[in-house]
Design goal:
By secondary structure, this protein is mainly α. It is built from six helices and no strands.
C-alpha cells in the first residue's frame, strides 16, 4: 500500500515538471538533427523512442506523487493536465519520427525541416516557462514566455498550411501526399500541445501570482 503524505512536496513536483519539459526539448532537438543529417534514421528514431519512454516514466511518477501527497503546490487538476500536456508534446514528436521511418521517407522536405526547427524553439520556451513555475515571485514571467510560445505556434500553423498547399499543388502521387499530410499533422499538433502547456501555466500564474 502506497504511503500517503500530508507534508508538502513542492520541490519534487517542480523537479519532475522541469525534467519532463527538458526531455521534450531534447527530443525536439533530436528530431531536428535527424532531419538535418538524415544519414542514420533508424538509429535516431530508436533514440527518440527511448526518450519518449523516459518521458512516460516521468509522467507516471508525477501522477503517482499527486496520489500520495495531501498538500500539492497547486490544484491537482492543473498538475495532471500539465503532466499530460508535456507528455503529449513528446508523443507527437515521436509519432513524427516513427512515421518517417515507417513510411521509408527518402528525404525530408524543406517544410518539415522548418517545422522541426520551430518545434525545437518552442519546446525550449516551454522548458523555460516550466522553470519559472518554481519561482513563485517570478510567475509573471510565465505570461511573457506564453506570448513567445503562442507566436511560435502561430508560425508553425502558417508553415503547416503552406506545406499542405504545396503538397497538393506540386504532387499527384497519392501515397506520397497521404504520408506527408500525416507527418505534417503530427508536427503541427506537437506545437499545439506546447500551446496547451502555456495555457495551463497561464492559468496557474493567474491563480497564484
Amino acid at each position: 500500500m502506497a504511503k500517503f503524505s500530508i507534508l508538502p512536496r513542492e520541490g519534487r513536483f517542480f523537479i519532475l515538471f522541469e525534467e519532463s519539459a527538458k526531455n521534450a526539448a531534447e527530443v525536439a532537438q533530436k528530431l531536428k538533427e535527424m532531419l538535418c543529417n538524415w544519414n542514420n534514421v533508424e538509429k535516431d528514431v530508436e533514440s527518440i523512442i527511448e526518450m519518449e519512454h523516459k518521458g512516460d516514466g516521468v509522467t507516471h511518477e508525477i501522477i503517482a506523487l499527486v496520489n500520495r501527497t495531501f498538500v500539492t503546490p497547486f490544484d491537482r487538476e492543473d498538475i495532471a493536465l500539465l503532466a499530460h500536456s508535456l507528455d503529449d508534446i513528446v508523443d507527437f514528436i515521436e509519432a513524427t519520427a516513427d512515421a518517417m521511418n515507417l513510411y521509408k521517407i527518402d528525404i525530408p522536405t524543406e517544410r518539415s525541416k522548418e517545422l522541426a526547427d520551430i518545434i525545437s524553439q518552442i519546446t525550449v520556451e516551454v522548458h523555460k516557462a516550466v522553470v519559472e513555475l518554481r519561482r513563485r515571485v517570478d510567475l509573471k514571467k510565465i505570461l511573457q514566455r506564453s506570448v513567445e510560445i503562442n507566436r511560435l505556434e502561430n508560425m508553425a500553423d502558417k508553415v503547416y498550411r503552406e506545406a499542405l498547399a504545396e503538397l497538393f499543388q506540386n504532387s499527384k502521387d497519392i501515397p506520397y501526399i497521404i504520408k506527408w499530410r500525416e507527418i505534417y499533422e503530427y508536427m503541427e499538433t506537437a506545437t499545439d500541445r506546447c500551446e496547451d502547456v502555456a495555457n495551463v501555466l497561464e492559468g496557474v500564474a493567474l491563480k497564484y501570482a
